[in-house]
Amino acid sequence: MSTNPTRVFVARLLGLDVFDPLGDRLGRLRDAVVLDRGPAKPPQAVGLVVEVPGKKRVFVPMTRVTSIDPSQIICTGLVNLRRFEQRGAEMLVVAELFDRRLTLRDGSGGATIEDIAMEKNRSGDWNVSQIFIRRGGVSSPLRSLRRGEKLIIDWLDAYHGDSDEPQAATQFVAQHDDLKAADFADAMHEMSDKRRLEVAGELQDQRLADILQELPDDDQVQILSSLDRERAADILEEMDPDDAADLLNELPEAQKEELLQLMEPDDAEDVRRLLEYEEDTAGSLMTTVPVILPPEATVAEALAHVRREELTPALASSIFVCRPPLETPTGRYLGVVHIQQLLRYPPPEPLGNIVDTDLEPVGDQANVSEVSRILATYNLNSLPIVNSDGRLVGAVTVDDVLDHLLPDDWRAQDDDAPGTKRGGSYG
Predict the structure, then answer these.
(1) b/e burial code for range 138-147 (CB count within 10 A of at least 16 → b)
(2) pLDDT below 50 — which residues of the chain?
(3) For the segment 86-128, what is each residue's pLDDT rounded down to a tens digit?
(4) What is the CATH number of domain 292-405?
(5) What is the CATH number of domain 170-276?
(6) Which of the four CATH numbers 1.10.357.10, 2.30.30.240, 3.30.420.40, 3.30.430.20 does domain 1-167 have?
C-alpha cells in the first residue's frame, strides 16, 4: 500500500477488520462501492461493503470512514445494519471491476484490471485515481510494456469496456477463496445475473457444488441451467444427494431426466430414490450418505470416519451400525453410536459392544412433524431413517429440518428489524 494515507489499493484492504472509534469491531471489509460518472470522469468511491457478525453485508459510506491503514479501518460507528443492496450506477470493485477488460489510450493494446486505487481529494471525496493492470496484447510499441507485464496507470488513460461485455472472474474467486460456501453464496446472490454466471463459470466443480447448496432456489436453477449439460451433471454428482434432488425437482421434467441420465449410475440412483418420496416425509429430507459401519468396526475406525472434512457436524455426530451391505439401503439396522461414546471407550473397542439400541429409527414415510418432535425431545443432531424392511436408507439431520421449516426464500431474506450500530443511516 502507498505510504500516502489518502491513496489506498482495494485488493490490499480486503479482509481487514473495521472498527468504531471505541475499538469495537464492526466487521470485515469485503468490497468497495464506486459510482460510475461516465467516460470523462473517474468513478467516485461512495462506500465500503462490510461483513458484520451474522455474515450479513452492510454498506458503510465513505463519509463515515475516518481512517484507513494497512492493518485496520476505522469508521464513526454510525452504520445502518440493513443488508447492502446495489443501486443505479453503483459498481462493486471486486465483484465487477476486477478482471474487466480495457484498452489503453496510447494504442498499446488491451489489459485486465487487477486492482484499483481510491484517493481522497482536498474536499474529502474519494475517487478512483489509478488502476493496477496486467497487459494482454500481442505486442506493444512501448518496449517496456510486454505481454503479461503489470503496471499502474491513471483511470483516464484507458478506454473502459461496457459492463455488458464478457468478463473473467479470476480475481474475484481468488480474493474470496477463504470464504465459507454459505458466505460466498451470499456474495453471489447480490450480483447481477450476468456476473453471477461468470463467477460460477470460474469455480471448480466441488466448490461450485458446495456454494450452489447454499443459494436460493432461483439462483441454483439459473446457474445450473447456464452450464453445459455434461458439467451440470458433474456438479450434481458433487452435491449431497438430498440437495441434488431438491434442485432437480425445480427443473422441467425433461431437463431433470436428461441430467440424471448423464450422471454416474450410482450417484443417479441415490438421487432417484430421494425423488420418489412425497414432500413432507422423512425420506424427502434425508441424506443417503450418513456414516455407516458394521458392528465389528472399532472405535478407532469410527473416529477416523467422522474426522472427514466433508462431513457436516450433524452427520459426524452419529455412526449408524448396520449389517452389510453398508451403502444405503443397508442390511439390517442395528443401532447408533454417538460421538460422545467414541470418546469414552478405548480405540480397539468394537462398535457392537457400545451400540445404542434404545433410539428407535424413523420410517421413511413418517411426517416431518414427527421427525422434528423426536429430534427436539431427545436433543439429537440426526435420526436414522429406515424402510419397511428395517434397512437404513438415510439420516435426517437437524439442519435438514430447519431448512424445511424456514420460509422458501429464507436465504435471501433480511432481518425484520434492521437496527443500527450507534445510530446513523446511509447518509
Answers:
(1) eebeeeebee
(2) 1-4, 137-145, 416-427
(3) 888 899 999 999 999 999 998 888 899 999 999 998 888 999 9
(4) 3.10.580.10
(5) 1.25.60.10
(6) 2.30.30.240
